[in-house]
Amino acid sequence: MSRLRQIWRALGAGTRVAVMIALQYRASFVGEAAMALLWIFWMVVPLFVVFRYTASGIDGWTYDEALLVVGCFITLQGILEAFIDPNLRAVVEHVRQGTLDFVLLKPIDAQILVSVQRTAPTKIPHMLAGVGLLVVASARLAHPPGPAQVLLAVLLLLAGAAILHSLWTLVVSTSFWFVRVDNLSYLLGSVLDAGRWPVGFFQGAVRFVLTFILPVGLMTTWPALALRGLISPAAALGALGLAAAFALVARAVWTFALRHYSSASS
Amino acid sequence: MSALRHAVRAWPTLLRIGVAEMVAYRAEIFIWFLTATMPLIMMLVWDRVAAGGPVGRFDQPGFARYFVATLVVRQLTSSWLVWEMNEQIRSGSLSPALLKPMHPLVLPAAENIAALPFRAAMLLPLVAVIWLWRPEMRWGVAAADLPLLVVAVFLAWLLNYLTQVCFAALAFWLQQSSGLFMVWFGVWVLLSGYAFPLELMPPALLAAVRWLPFRAMLGVPVEIASGLSSGLGALAAVALQLVWCAAVGLLARAMWRAGVRRYEAYGA
């Protein structure tokens, strides 16, 4: 039990530091917020152009419904850039400079510690902008979602964030061998770009990859489907199961990689 | 003028250095190459839209042809000077390059040009797969337009490079300008024809967008390569590219000179 409390306190300390940093750079926070609004507009343009040419929608998605997917995408991207990417990028730096030893020496689980050490609060407006788009798009639906649907969507978004964290952990784990992996996270980021579109737009092998291997579809399309009331609780449970499976695999790979880490001094 | 003669004489050697660099960092280049997935995603999306009937001048093979051209032209015209220069300016490793009897932007240009054919060659398997998927996709350029296409691709590369010189020069003042460049890149994605053929934009917007430098950086060669523009229309588009190259070239020259003077000022 004390272990859990320890983790909880580490999380709290990490958040406190992040908030302090955010308050320190108020001006850049406002700047980022303005950028986030611009970003939304920019992300919607391709959608707007595509839907100009289909009166009946594509694959059962109307413009407003597809906006939900973009909203989920921006939200998750914000979470990624604010909470996940800075932390795991720091691990790569630790490995390169040999300072990972200090992390490993601390009496707390290293994976948890490296996951809460750094936050980029200036990216939080980006995440909030995504949530804002979700609210606007939901209100424009013919049947706006009820509390149950919203709850389900939030759950699925959290599962998506967990999968992102696992994917990034997997990439970072390879840095114990290859050291330079910053490019890999760009690569992953550009594949995830497919998540702006409902996964049903893709066919065959591409759809398979985006559903099961890099489950972008699950991360962005499913929460949107939940808001439309088109996802059964069983399917949602399956999604949570998949997220748990990803987390377990990431945990196993991380542990394995750590065992191969030959610290800076040896 | 002797600086120019030096550069011309050194050019073959510089290209060889470029090839060697490319081979040394092949894995990294391969990963960077893979990050250019956006045209593929957009191709698949537009393919679904066109499944219900042609969109403007595009049917399904038409979109495949357009985005294959986009992929290839993108690889043939991309540059990464901003990142290199940001690093060199911040760390001071630009100093030795400034001492050489050759303009410091010549070597990066040679490295860039040497790597481009390899990057384009990496696309072959991908193009083959797309061709198997949409076999009706045919070669869209008339023989008469081929020389123009070559010129258009070169000018697009040049304009990309010169724009990056401008952004790289900003780093003399800002320490870090790659973030600013990414904002520019975001605009570029939508207005260059990278995400969708520009002619599918609302007509009122298109009227303005077609004169901006973004189309000259990608859209012009892509439109010629996919057979959307030919003859006189293509010639006019290439002329527009020339105008932008001249304008941005002058700006890049002024910014680089002012920047280098400033760099020397803090005695690195």
Structure description:
- The complex is a heterodimer of chains A (266) and B (268).
- With 266 residues, chain A is mainly alpha-helical.
- Chain A contains twelve helices and no strands.
- By secondary structure, chain B is mainly α.
- Helices cover 76% and strands 0% of the residues of chain B.
- Chain B has helices at 2-24, 26-34, 38-50, 60-77, 81-91, 94-99, 106-121, 124-133, 146-174, 178-191, 203-209, 213-225, 231-265.
- Chains A and B meet through α2 and α9 of A and α2, α3 and α10 of B.
Largest interface, chains and sizes: A-B, 28 and 27 residues
The span between the termini of chain A is: 35 Å
Gross morphology of chain A: globular
Unreliable sequence segments of chain B? none
Report the portion of residues of chain B in β strands: under 5%
Helix content of chain A: over 70%
Q: What string gives the helices and strands of chain B in order?
A: HHHHHHHHHHHHH
Secondary structure category of chain A: mainly alpha
Name the quaternary structure.
heterodimer
Please tell me the overall pLDDT of chain B: 87
Classify the helix fraction of chain B into a percent range.
over 70%
Which overall shape of chain B is indicated by the principal axes computed on the Cα atoms?
globular
Strand segment tally of chain B: 0
N-to-C series of helices and strands of chain A: HHHHHHHHHHHH
Regions with little confidence, pLDDT below 50 for 5+ residues of chain A: none
In short:
The complex is a heterodimer of chains A (266) and B (268). With 266 residues, chain A is mostly helical. Chain A has helices at residues 2-24, 26-51, 63-97, 100-105, 110-116, 124-140, 147-173, 175-178, 182-192, 204-213, 216-227, 233-259.
Sum up the structure in keywords.
heterodimer, A: mainly alpha, globular, B: 268 residues, mainly alpha, 13 helices, 76% helix
